[in-house]
Specification:
By secondary structure, the chain is mainly alpha-helical. Helices cover 58% and strands 7% of the residues. It is flat, with a radius of gyration of 18 Å.
């Protein structure tokens, strides 16, 4: 059995909403999501009991049948990548005047909040991988 990339993409969309993503052509949106997924795969592959590097890019799927937990960890890793991109996005680094009430909104406060959110997501992602490794690890492979 195989796990299609779309399963991971759909799980990731519960962690973040991006209206810009929905405006893209399907192939472009898929390319963006694929990039975030590859970041998550790079982080999780050393710990996953399934071979995340064994993929069929033509059909857009992992060759192994991933568990729901593995899919969720990849989705969370994608959310970390998306949030990191948003924190570093240049519009968040500029001060602007809101046209709504002509009030000044501090981009510094927004950036600090987004950094806090990124840190929290990153901790959650790392903790989920650590917990997964703890429950699925095989100590017989250790050379002691």
């Amino acid at each position: 059995m195989a796990t299609p990339y779309s399963t991971v993409y759909n799980a990731a969309l519960f962690y973040f909403r991006d209206s810009d993503l929905f405006c893209l052509i399907e192939a472009e949106a898929e390319a963006v999501l694929h990039g975030y997924m590859m970041q998550a795969v790079a982080n999780f592959a050393p710990y996953c009991k399934h071979d995340l590097l064994d993929r069929d890019e033509e059909y857009g799927e992992f060759k192994d049948d991933l568990t729901d937990i593995e899919v969720d960890i990849l989705a969370l890793g994608m959310a970390v990548g998306w949030t990191e991109h948003r924190v570093r996005y240049q519009d968040n680094l500029r001060d602007r005047m809101s046209s709504k009430d002509y009030t000044y909104h501090s981009r510094g406060n927004l950036l600090a909040s987004m950094n806090d959110m990124l840190d929290a997501l990153n901790r959650k992602f790392r903790n989920r991988m650590m917990s997964y490794t703890y429950h699925n690890g095989d100590i017989s492979s250790l050379h002691m």
